[in-house]
Specification:
The complex is a heterodimer of chains A (about 220) and B (about 80). Chain A has about 220 residues and is α/β, with parallel strands linked by helices. Chain A contains 5 helices and 11 strands; from the N terminus they run βαββαβαββββαβββα. Chain A is globular, with a radius of gyration of 16 Å. Chain B has about 80 residues and is α+β, with helices and mostly antiparallel strands. Chain B is built from 2 helices and 3 strands; from the N terminus they run E-H-E-H-E. Chain B has a 3-stranded antiparallel sheet, with helices on one face. The chains are: A alpha/beta (about 220), B alpha+beta (about 80).
Amino acid sequence: MTLRAGVIVFPGSNCDRDMFVCLEEFYDSVNYIWHKEEFAKENYDLIVLPGGFSYGDYLRTGAIASHSIAMNSVREFAKFGGKILGVCNGFQILCESRILSGALVNNSVNRFISKDVYLQASKIDIPICLHVAHNEGNYTNTEYELQKLKNDGNIILRYSNEVNEVSNQTNINGSTMNIAGIRNKNIIGMMPHPERAIFDYHNSQDGRLFFEEYILS
Amino acid sequence: MSKYRIFIQRRAGVFDPELSSISDSIKTLNFDGVKSISNARIFDIKLEERFSENSEEYIHNICRSLLVNDIIEDYNIEKIS
């Protein structure tokens, strides 16, 4: 079977190429989808919303991108049961589109964070090390939805330390319950960048582990 | 013609680091009488002549569709003219 992935490009996306190169490691064909284009849901096994600053982050991060034409197809693809991954700004867009629940607001430290972090991953026994680079990564949601995410096992990544402990000290951006990534069935949203932990020249190759456990399995 | 003013505020309980920094700065300037501070984003929307009675609902729709994220924000509207 041929595996096909698509990367949506919004005006202001800047991790689209990194994601493209990363996906070529796992998928037989990868192509870009311009935000003004619709796509046929049958043509893809995975759709990725990459990081960046879509529409200059105007209004709220991801708010304007969530209304772009390609997002109509993303909603269709989601209903169809297709796999969707939103990374960083992609996660923000999925939340603004209400495809995933919650919102991402300014980091509690009130500055842009760019560094490698450890993450406790629900399906992996050891902490994984991925890079984060964001100003609005502070995940928030209603009490009801948070409880639902927790009960359903849909919190997949939490900011932790090198021995996989999750605490206030390891919470880099003020996210509720240290949330770094969530899922809803086949749809995953996460602030860390797995595409930046793939190759030998990266600090970590744990992105491969992430893709194997959460995207390809 | 209808003109509306929309006020959008962070919901109570949603931490606003920007506002927290501003508040700290006011204290640093020795204005020690400030109990709390809040801010809002304001949009003024002027509607075309064809709107009359249902114009308020139209503004609410704009807010719910784009301007406001109800998970983190509250809003209210005011008819200006």
